[in-house]
Amino acid sequence: MNWKAFGAMLARDAHVARRNAIQLFLQTFLQPLLFVFIFGRVMVGSGYMPVAYKSLLLPGIIAISMVFTGIWAVAMPLIAEFQWTREIEDRLLAPISVGWVAIEKVIAGMLQALVAGLVVIPLAWLVLRPGVEISIPSPLTFAVVILLVAFFSACGGLALGCSMNQQHIGLMFSMVITPMVFFGCTYYPWSALKTFPVLQRAVLINPLVYASEGMRATLVPQFPHLSLTAVLIALVFFDLLLLVVGLRQFEKKAIS
Amino acid sequence: MAVGVRTNDLRKVYNSAAPTGAVGGFIARAEAKGSKQPKTQIQALDGLSLEILPGEIFGLLGPNGAGKSTTVGVLTTRVRPTSGQAWIGDHEVWKEQAQVKRLIGVVPQRPNLDFSLTAREILIFHAAYFGMGSKQRNERADALLEKFKLTERGNQMVRGFSGGLLQRLSIARAMMHDPQVLFLDEPSAGLDPQTRILLWELIREYHSAGKTVLLTTHNMEEADALCQRLAIVDHGKVIALGTPGELKASIPGGFLLRLRFSNPTGELVQRLRELAGVREVIASDGVGADIYADRGGSLIPGIAGAVSSAGAELLDVNISEPSLENLFLHHTGRSLRD
User: Fold this and answer.
1) Chain A contact present for B51, CB below 8 A
2) Are both B62 and B209 inside the same structural domain?
3) Is the ipTM, as predicted for this complex, more than 0.90?
4) Which of A76, B100, B132, B269 could bridge across to B137 with cysteines, CB 3.0–4.6 Å?
5) Which residues of chain A lie closer than 8 angstroms to B80, CB-CB?
6) B119: which residues sit within 8 A by CB, 6+ positions away?
7) Are residue B69 and residue B218 in the same domain, yes or no?
8) Low-confidence residues of chain A, pLDDT below 50?
9) pLDDT of amino acid A215
10) A with B: how many residue pairs have Cβ under 8 Å apart?
11) Same domain, B102 and B30
12) Domain with B293 in it: what CATH number?
């Protein structure tokens, strides 16, 4: 393993992220903050939603921000770099095996997802307060959950980015991202689906469900949520699955 | 110590479209097992064996789709061969990829520069991937920018660069980690003559430092001016190999006269064969003939006589001197530009 090459690639991604910091910031935080403002302030303030909804909403917003930052940070550059600018070739020719180039992308995406999660918490809290009741009774469990969430989002980005053609980006949004968000238990807890038993089972294939429920279990345990054990098992499963699929797809793209 | 390059019986069949710049020879329809849809298979390499000596400038010459880019792809770890082996020095390419990648620098057919970085950053990050220290990579980046006349552009993003600038920077990047073997895939395609000459000088200079250079081209002039030895490649095979001089000397007679006439007959072709100095006559599809001969213009009166006495009419004569173009035509019956 060539750590120098690996470190240099991470440094390159960090350098590019720094250069595009404002764009990245708006891309990552504008939508969740607007959502928090409308649902957490406007709807609650006007009495259409109970005050407790603020606390229920926050973990879902963190999950969405993290998952989509991770997916976006890995998938979008990969789609462009493999098909349009081909600039990834420079890194594929670095003295390191091709799989590690993919792992580097995953680590870079994971770091961005973690930053997104950790920044959106205080931002959303500022928009929502007063009335938000979050607590972190077990910081260690919370750390494990956000690491697993960041990892599956970056691996998902790898798998998607290496499976999609550039002309299908629009389709990726309508076919993958949008259903994932709405059936991801982000704006409501999983238990709220009990009146739709078939749907309640079906959404379990959506990894975002475990991200949202995991956040709920660690930040607002007073609300109903999936058991933490089930969440952790499912997150580890999706981490491994998406990593294996992502690496396979990456090698397929990298070597003809 | 200079490093050589070797391939043994390389074969490559693409099951789908070949990557840009590596579109292989001919397309065959083959029934894929268990699938109703016939699969398009493209045989890009068909038993290609080569030996490039350490410290040599070697050229792969051939038309588009001959398998040149696929050969470069296999040697640079980007195209996995269907069968056969390739070595850079003592390292087998598909078993020791990381070691091989340390030894090679690659200039692709299509620029693949990092659009998120400036020209100077591209060089510096490239060197960092190869583990070069900070001081050394800064010095080397500045020296290469200077040499490639890019110093003024060093701090600009490459997005707006012209084709010539992109190509120069691609070559500078490939030289950044001082590789033993430099691969250039169609290095001067689309460049203006001035940039082309600058590029040739830079390649020669790099070679004079004891490095091996492998370039692909379909430009005769470039192959002739730059390469010490050449392999002519067609349909994924080497069809001729030698120095440009040796290859040209292998054309029968050396001169090529391409004739076009009306009403050609078998008798006419026979008469042409009997003319003094004619080595070979290849009749082409009833409208003309290619004559390989040891003389050029002085054959014309004889040809004109033979044509009129056979009752035909001479429509066009084209005389060319010994060239790699003629050589390619002689081996394949097709022009390089076809």
Assistant:
1) no
2) yes
3) no
4) B132
5) 255-256
6) B145, B150, B153, B154, B155, B156, B158, B161, B169
7) yes
8) none
9) 93
10) 88
11) yes
12) 3.30.70.100
Same domain, B43 and B177: yes
**Is residue B328 in a domain?**
no
A94 touches chain B (CB under 8 A): yes
Note down the domain range covering B42.
Answer: 5-113+161-234
Same domain, B225 and B260: no
- Partners of A97 on chain B (C-beta within 8 Å) are 97-98
- Residue B36 within a domain: yes
Q: Quickly state the pLDDT bin for B29 (edges 50, 70, 90).
A: very low
pLDDT higher than threshold 70 for residue B38: no
Band of residue B42 on the pLDDT scale cut at 50, 70, 90: confident
pLDDT for res B138: 94
Tell whether B72 and B201 lie within a shared domain. yes
Question: Locate tokens 């994932």: which residue?
Answer: A180
Query: Are residue B176 and residue B226 in the same domain, yes or no?
Result: yes
**CATH code, domain with B17:** 3.40.50.300
User: Hey, what are A84's tokens?
Assistant: 């349009």
Distance between CA A66 and CA A71 in Å, rounded?
Answer: 9
Q: Round to whole Å and give the CA distance between A210 and A238.
A: 10
The structural domain count of chain B equals 2
- State how far Cα A165 lies from the chain centre: 21
Give the residue from B107, B116, B169 with the most A CB atoms within 10 Å of its CB, the best one to mutate. Answer: B116
Answer whether A3 touches B (CB < 8 Å).
Answer: no
pTM of this prediction? 0.83
Give pLDDT, residue B139.
94
pLDDT value for B306 = 84
- Coil, strand or helix at B14: strand
Q: Quick one: which of B282, B264, B299, B295 has its CA closest to B334?
A: B282
- Comparing alpha-carbon positions, the chain A residue that sits nearest to B108 is A89
B286 in the same domain as B173: no
Among A5, A97, A256, whose Cβ lies nearest the Cβ of B131?
A5
The confidence score (pLDDT) of residue B39 equals 63
Domain boundary among the residues B181, B206, B234 is at B234
- The whole-angstrom distance between residue A197's C-alpha and the CA centroid of its chain comes to 26
A222 touches chain B (CB under 8 A): no
* 3-state helix vs strand vs coil in chain B, percent to 5: 35, 30, 35
Instruction: Give the closest-approach CA distance of B293 to chain A in angstroms.
Output: 45
Q: Which residues of B touch A255 (CB under 8 A)?
A: 77-80
Query: Is B159 touching A (CB cutoff 8 A)?
Result: no
Structural tokens at position A124? 């959303």
Interchain contact B76–A (C-beta under 8 A): yes
B152 in a domain, yes or no?
no
Residues of B in contact with A89 (CB under 8 A): 78, 106, 108, 112
CB of A24 within 8 Å of any CB in chain B? no
Cβ of residue B130 closer than 8 Å to a chain A Cβ: yes
Report if residue B331 sits inside a domain: no
